[in-house]
Amino acid sequence: MSAPCLLGAGRVAALIPAAGSGTRLGLGPKAFVEVAGRSLLARSVAALRPLVDEVLVALPEDLPLPADLAALDVQAVVGGSTRQASVRRLLHATAADTVLIHDAARPFLPENVVLDLLEAVAETGAATVALPVADTLVRAGTPGRWGELVPREGLWAVQTPQAFRRAALLAAHEQAARDGAQVTDDASLITRGGGQVRLVPGDARLFKVTTPGDLHLAAALAATWDAGGPQ
Question: For 2-21, what is each residue's pLDDT tens digit?
Answer without folding.
Answer: 455 545 678 999 999 998 76
